[in-house]
Amino acid sequence: MAEEVPNHGVILKRYVTRFPSEDDMEVVACTARLAVPAGSAAVVVKNLYVSCDPYMRTCMTKHEEPNYLPDFVPGEVLMSNGVSRVVTSGHPDFKAGDLLWGPTGWEEYTLITNTDIHFKINHPEMPLSYYTGMPGLTAYAGFFDVARPKKGECVFVSAASGAVGQIVGQLAKLTGCYVVGSAGSDEKVSLLKTKFGFDGAFNYKKEHDLNAALKRFFPDGIDIYFDNVGGAMLDAVLINMRMHGRIAACGHISQYNLEVPEGVHNLFSLVTKRVRMEGFMVLDYHSKYRMFEEEIVGYLKEGKICYVEDVVDGLEKAPAALIGLFTGRNVGKQLVNLLKTKFGFYEAFNYKKEKDLNATLKRYFPEGIDIYFENVGGAMLDAVLLNMRLRGRIPVCGMISQYNKEQTEGTRNLFCLIAKRLRMEGFIVMDHFGEYRQFEEEMVRYLKEGKINYVEDVADGLEKAPAALIALFTGANVGKKVVAVSRE
Ligand SMILES: NC(=O)c1ccc[n+]([C@@H]2O[C@H](COP(=O)([O-])OP(=O)(O)OC[C@H]3O[C@@H](n4cnc5c(N)ncnc54)[C@H](OP(=O)(O)O)[C@@H]3O)[C@@H](O)[C@H]2O)c1
């Protein structure tokens, strides 16, 4: 394995005092060492997803007094939770290939020296992006531990369509509560009612009088307020709380870009209504993570909870995605996908680095493969056969791994065709030339719409043609290999 590889990261250019802009961040090229320091328990990871979180804004400001999280440092990469694959490990519990979630850098490769709050992913059958960690646990801890709901209570959630809010609302419904959410667009309001099952929802940007809006939905008052925004909404909620109500203070996103926070005027309601308002930090709940995970994975599998994400592809889109949190551009949890780059594959692996192809395929397809587009044959085909699902299909396009062998490797697992009723069918493109015009129309449209990408690897000059052809068998080409004979 190469000791050093090219790396890209998003750095903070300067400290921010007001509303952040994309220009406060920059994508820079650098290199990453893949080795961990000798004798250390560090890991080097390849990042797959990084999370955009509102708290990151507070880390962009220089604090004279220590903040609850360390400030970012200009010139260094931003940090947040992410999902990563271990490349090299000195840690006894993590090995190369393992999937982890926890704090990581906004870059392709990160050396993580402190793995105290990193978790190995136990349910890779769930979308990996769900493991950017905090929002679900934040909702779970804040709702059950801080707000302590009872069946039949009235619950209000602000920033309700966001990463945390959407889960809080669904947990409230599962507990038998009446739940209403606020969000900043009609599209989000509709999502709350149709997708997440909120009993009611309103667009706070369209309400001139938040107090009146809350009275409309809670004529008898609010038992639980899950506060994601602070500011004017908190003030309006305070006068609508019921006796012995609880306010789980989760975040104050409406205040993060103000130099001086707005004053909240109705705190005396805490006294008159014996309301408990309690702040909490998800960091304090990491010990409960495994318990939370089992319960939530169960709900997700049973379809009792759903989760909406807003994923952008590529680190270069990360600054805009982060800023979008503060304008409400995101719908659901905002993530940056570092893997799904050019071709949009959900996952990918380097077959040369995998010792056991059967185990590799099981990792990516725990429930089996429906369609295998066969290009290589040999050991990969044998491993795939073991992992096909009942009635799966294998269009056999080519078997490049065998073309240079005097005697082909034998395929051993063909009995799977019978046991699993598989169809494996060879084809030659020449037999389909009759469909060319139809294919061309469709493909040109996809290419124009940017729905399909095509990568070519062009060698210039006929003298490079022999090497170009040989490259196909060593894997030196990236995409379609062509030789440019003459450029007009
Ligand atoms: N205590 C903890 O441990 C903890 C952990 C995670 C998150 N949090 C906090 O929880 C809150 C929600 O976080 P999240 O991850 O779920 O974020 P998110 O909802 O995914 O994204 C932020 C959303 O907040 C809303 N928003 C932005 N500016 C606003 C404003 N000025 N007034 C009202 N709403 C505004 C926007 O939606 P709209 O279109 O609806 O305006 C935006 O989409 C944040 O305050 C965050 O800091 C706390």
TrEMBL record:
InterPro entries assigned: ADH-like_C (IPR013149), ADH_N_2 (IPR041694), ER (IPR020843), GroES-like_sf (IPR011032), MDR_fam (IPR045010), NAD(P)-bd_dom_sf (IPR036291)
Gene Ontology molecular function: any one: 2-alkenal reductase [NAD(P)H] activity
Domain Enoyl reductase (ER), first and last residues per copy: 21-336
One Pfam family this sequence matches: ADH_zinc_N
Xref: CDD domains: double_bond_reductase_like
Domain of life: Eukaryota
Keyword line: Oxidoreductase
Oligomeric and partner information: Homodimer.
Protein name: Enoyl reductase (ER) domain-containing protein
